[in-house]
Amino acid sequence: DVIVDLAHAYGRARAPFIRLGSGQSRYRNGAMTTRLITCLPAVVGAWGKQGAGLLTSASASKAYDKEIVTHSDWKQPGKRVVNMCCLGQALTGDERIRSLFVYSSNPACTAPDQNQVLKGLCRDDLFTVVHERFMTDTARYADIVLPATTSLEHDDAYYSYGNYTIQCGYAAIPPVGQSRSNWRVACDLAHAMGIDDDFYDRSERDLVEALAASTTKWPLPVDQQRLSQGLPTPLPMPADYQTRFATPSGKIEIYNAALTPALPDYLPLAEDDGTLAFVNGPDMRILDSSFNERDELTASHTMDLFVHPDDAARYGLQDGQTVTLANERGQADFTVVISKRTVPGQVVSEGVWWRERVKGQGASVNVLTSQRLTDEGAGSTFYDVRVSIIPSANS
């Protein structure tokens, strides 16, 4: 009934606008779902009306010429590329990774199919280096841990997630102890391996200044003085912006012969063992697995599981009870919170917690998630999970 009411409200709206997030994309049919939603403004004639249409993302990163850093012309055809969502397979499959360098990531905690990832990290013939600020789950599997700088200790260029703002951030203090930035370590490795290119002689400040200067390619002038002062700098947008479609015809093309199927259609979700849908959302205390090191945020934490009252009655569950969620990939323990924040047939947890922060078997939420990829774009399917619920005998 809610979906029908929403459809009628959207169809009757004078100038309907959709702000599309990314959550719907993290299912096996995520690309098709996104494709279907982006067709809706065309169906109701929203394009061309002031304030109407659809926004998928605010790409402030396009203000920078990222080629200054990425050098895509250096990429060599035929070199192996590993999707982070399939790291477990890459660590345990027939063509196993033999050396792993981890920076700005914590795959032992955040990568899907945690049991497979940990099995790979335990290999005696895997050489693992982790460049980190804290002793994360992944750092505990490293052969070598290198100390990394925080954002207070190095210069960097930033762009926003969800709005059109960029910023240059400058080091407030020198690197602590032997800490080095990602860029400094990359340069040191290049020099040690005899790579003779003056690109690796540049400092973080050199790159930040080059990125800031590249914003002159933005359609309207960017406030360079504000940017150089390290202040948040809004990107100006054209007042008379007109909708343009980046299709071969320049028109809306719902039918697309380059895709299979050519017309958008329903695709089913993945088939998993389990009777309940399981979704993991963000926790206000942490960001992905970051900030787990803060005892004041996490010391008293338990992995909560939000269960609808109908399902709680069905399974005979009580608030505060310990339950185990299980599927063919593994199992993890949670504390029940009975709540109407979720819907019947779906259970929800919040936060990606380090293994030392969770009770029971030390397994966090990604022991349940899959290395399956989306129907297009090779994206993650973190939300396309089904589980069985097992009440604890000790509860």
Helix content: 10-25%
- Kindly report how far apart the N and C termini lie: 37 Å
Percent of residues in beta strands = 15-25%
Taken from the alpha-carbon principal axes, the silhouette is globular
Can you summarize the main beta sheet?
6 strands, mixed, barrel
How large, in whole angstroms, is the Cα Rg? 24 Å
Topology as a string of helices (H) and strands (E): HEHEHHEHHEEEEHHHEEHEHEEEE
User: CATH architecture of the largest domain, please?
Assistant: 3-Layer(aba) Sandwich
Supply the helix-strand structural class.
alpha/beta
- CATH top level of the largest domain? Alpha Beta
Count of DSSP H/I helices:
11
* Strand count: 14
Mean pLDDT: 93
What is the strand arrangement across the widest sheet? 9-13-10-12-11-14
Low-confidence stretches at least 5 residues in length (pLDDT < 50)? none
Count structural domains.
Answer: 3
CATH topology title of the largest domain: Rossmann fold
